[in-house]
């Protein structure tokens, strides 16, 4: 399994200039390659192959007065910029043909030097090296100081140097790991995600939503006001923009650290984890968009998924249209939609349900059913005869609305 290990790096002022030069050259090569392919398409010429494009925008361009400064950076950086362009085109073509699932992918676009995030990548051909003194040697950059928060488990195959919007530099190593599976755990858990409670587990545990962005809103509002008061194009405005970026980066770092700790604990304590397949992109276009993005459900479920694969656990996403909030987890009765203000309800079978805990239990039962992990045992509530008034209800009627901690999901 290939994983990324990120570390903070501290280049000197001269090394920052060399990195800026490398960022610019990689961007120019990417844009030249994109321009060449667009021009060939407009002229009705065949699609430029990867090899021909490399000869045109790198090898031949270095001999021209307009692009001779491309020789000042490592050739691997330029080749990787073209590799990114080729990957973008392949993803676009796969999306057009239907081979790529998910949302449609747009064609690649030109990179701007005003982008807040700049990256370059060195592969093993560039002969980058982690020195014995802990520094990272990069070709035509120098020996960069690295803040090692943990040791690399193996030799990295590539390293990406990143400069984010806050002006920080990071080194992201790609490492192939062979982690052993964790000892088998007896418990399984279903997770119902929400806003008031970030996660409600099927065992009744409720994890309160930390709301990191909301807690930092006052400081962010003040910094945004400082930006708006500065003259456009001035150095003071650029400094104010960096302060805003640093504040947002701190919020993102705190959220990521909290999610890593929570996801690791859940994976270690449970043999199987079942969650809802929420349409985060759709919820992000509602009036609750700020709260949805502050919660970070997509990144949390992605952490659960790759950690489950890494440590030999089972991870399953259930159908997003499953009526988990409308079904009694005890008898299986479909009680129908309820107002969002109803946080608890009583089933005709006599069971009093907490809305979120009941949904988490149904997520667990549905996930076990989908995963066929029960070895013949009954994992879903026993079927009950439908009352006469429900006999003619279409199954899709259960899709009307369900709540994710007070959020309607269509």
Describe this structure in words.
The chain has helices spanning 13-42, 50-59, 75-97, 212-215, 217-229, 235-269, 280-283, 289-295, 297-310, 355-371; strands at 2-10, 118-123, 129-130, 136-138, 142-147, 158-163, 169-176, 188-193, 197-201, 206-208, 272-276, 314-318, 344-346, 352-354, 402-403, 408-409. With 410 residues, it is an alpha+beta fold. It has a seven-stranded antiparallel sheet with strand order 2-6-7-1-5-4-3. Helix 1 (13-42) crosses helix 2 and helix 1 (13-42) crosses helix 3.
Topology:
Layout: E1 2-10, H1 13-42, H2 50-59, H3 75-97, E2 118-123, E3 129-130, E4 136-138, E5 142-147, E6 158-163, E7 169-176, E8 188-193, E9 197-201, E10 206-208, H4 212-215, H5 217-229, H6 235-269, E11 272-276, H7 280-283, H8 289-295, H9 297-310, E12 314-318, E13 344-346, E14 352-354, H10 355-371, E15 402-403, E16 408-409
Parallel strand pairs: 8-11, 11-12
Antiparallel strand pairs: 1-5, 1-7, 2-6, 3-4, 4-5, 6-7, 8-9, 9-10, 13-14, 15-16
């Amino acid at each position: 399994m290939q994983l990324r290990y990120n570390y903070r790096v501290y280049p000197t002022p001269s090394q920052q200039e060399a990195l800026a030069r490398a960022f610019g050259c990689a961007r120019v090569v990417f844009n030249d390659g994109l321009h060449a392919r667009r021009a060939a398409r407009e002229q009705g010429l065949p699609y430029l192959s990867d090899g021909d494009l490399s000869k045109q925008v790198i090898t031949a361009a270095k001999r021209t007065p307009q692009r001779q400064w491309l020789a000042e950076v490592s050739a691997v950086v330029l080749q990787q910029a073209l590799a990114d362009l080729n990957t973008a085109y392949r993803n676009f073509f796969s999306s057009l043909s239907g081979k790529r699932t998910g949302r449609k992918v747009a064609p690649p676009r030109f990179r701007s030097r005003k982008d807040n995030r700049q990256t370059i990548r060195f592969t093993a051909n560039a002969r980058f090296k982690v020195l014995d003194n802990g520094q990272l040697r990069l070709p035509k950059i120098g020996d960069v100081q690295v803040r090692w928060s943990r040791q690399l488990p193996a030799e990295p195959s590539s390293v990406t140097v990143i400069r984010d919007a806050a002006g920080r530099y990071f080194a992201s190593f790609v490492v192939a790991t062979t982690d052993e599976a964790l000892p088998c755990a007896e418990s399984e858990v279903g997770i119902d995600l929400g806003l008031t409670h970030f996660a409600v587990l099927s065992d009744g545990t409720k994890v309160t939503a930390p709301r990191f962005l909301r807690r930092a809103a006052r400081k962010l509002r003040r910094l945004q006001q400082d930006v708006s008061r500065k003259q456009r194009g001035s150095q003071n405005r650029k400094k104010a923009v960096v302060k805003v970026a640093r504040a947002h980066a701190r919020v993102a770092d705190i959220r990521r650290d909290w999610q890593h700790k929570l996801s690791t604990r859940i994976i270690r304590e449970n043999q199987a984890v079942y969650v809802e397949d929420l349409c985060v992109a759709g919820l992000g276009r509602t009036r609750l968009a700020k709260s949805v993005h502050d919660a970070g459900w997509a990144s949390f479920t992605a952490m659960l998924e790759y950690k489950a694969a890494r440590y030999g656990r089972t991870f399953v996403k259930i159908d997003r249209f499953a009526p988990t909030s409308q079904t009694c987890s005890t008898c299986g009765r479909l009680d129908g939609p309820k107002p969002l203000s109803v946080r608890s309800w009583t089933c005709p079978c006599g069971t009093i349900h907490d809305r979120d805990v009941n949904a988490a239990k149904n997520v667990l039962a549905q996930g076990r059913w989908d995963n066929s992990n029960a070895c013949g045992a009954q994992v879903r509530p026993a079927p009950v005869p439908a009352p006469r008034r429900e006999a003619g209800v279409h199954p899709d009627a259960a899709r009307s609305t369900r709540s994710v901690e007070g959020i309607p999901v269509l």
